Amino acid sequence: MPTFTAPDGTEVAYHVRGEGDPLVVLPGGPMQASVYLGDLGGLTAHRRLILLDLRGTGDSAVPADPATYRCDRQIDDVEALRVHLGLDRMDLLAHSAGGSLAMLYAARYPRRVARLALVTVIPWALGRPATPEERLTAARLRKDEPWFADAYPALRAWLAGEEVTDAEFAALTGFFYGRWDDTARAHAAGMEERAVVEAEEAFHGPGAYDPPALRSALADVTAPVLVLAGEADGGPCPGLARLVADAFPHAEFAVQPGAGHYPWLDDPKRFTDRTAAFLAAEGSPQP
User: Fold this and answer.
1) Among the CATH numbers 3.30.70.3490, 3.40.30.10, 3.40.50.1820, 2.120.10.30, which is that of 3-130+194-280?
2) How many helices and strands in the chain, by DSSP H and E?
3) Secondary structure percentages of the chain, helix, strand, coil, to 5
4) Which of 41, 221, 231, 248 stands the most exposed, by the fewest C-beta atoms within 10 Å?
């Protein structure tokens, strides 16, 4: 397991899967160990994935200062990884909450990003989280599912901030997947091991984002960007994900039919074909 040392001395780990040109991958959660990403539906057939374990997660060390869990404080970790890998510019893929970190990195280091793929990213960093009604609206698309009657009340209670039992939370997990099958259930079970609670809470903590300043900086990013949303995802729903694409001058926006928050599980071929095509497209960002 390779590691590098962050500027503050924290030992940060990453995992390498596949062959070919490197693709640095930032996990979501927030603060979920990268293992849940797997091989991104077979994307390893096209690229060598460099899967970062954010500080305090997976095989990375817990930092001495818990304040460094905040999203903007982790930009230096991503830059340290780029330097460690010896890349002048890097292709970057981020999932979910990792998209906020990727956007902040692109804003600070625009010349270090060659291509950027943002997968089911809520624009937290742009000051626009997913609302409960958006999530419930997306959930109602699943009304014909046999598990809907039990899961929907649990989701509504959870979004209202009410306490839910482990069984109720397990029931509502189906809404995060486009297909609630054995593959999705196994994946959901593996998501249960998370980072320490303080890391999750600190990631989007006060002071992490300055939406007006970020919008201004992203308008100058010349790298091609792909923003991919899931048709059945509620966080973000496609309309919310489009706000991410609108923040960049050179962004493509795509909606994967039938997909939830983990589109590489719902239709691996469609996901890998679309993502690999974007990463392999001709054309480079301006110097």
Assistant:
1) 3.40.50.1820
2) 11, 8
3) 45, 15, 40
4) 231
Question: What are the tokens at 200?
Answer: 């999750």
* pLDDT at position 32 over 60: yes
| pLDDT, position 265 | 97
Query: Does 226 have pLDDT greater than 90?
Result: yes
Q: pTM (2 decimals)?
A: 0.95
- How far is it, in rounded angstroms, from Cα 46 to Cα 224? 18
Q: Two tokens at 132?
A: 């409960």
Q: Report the share of the chain in percent with pLDDT over 90.
A: 92
Q: How confident is the model at residue 196 (pLDDT cuts 50, 70, 90)?
A: low
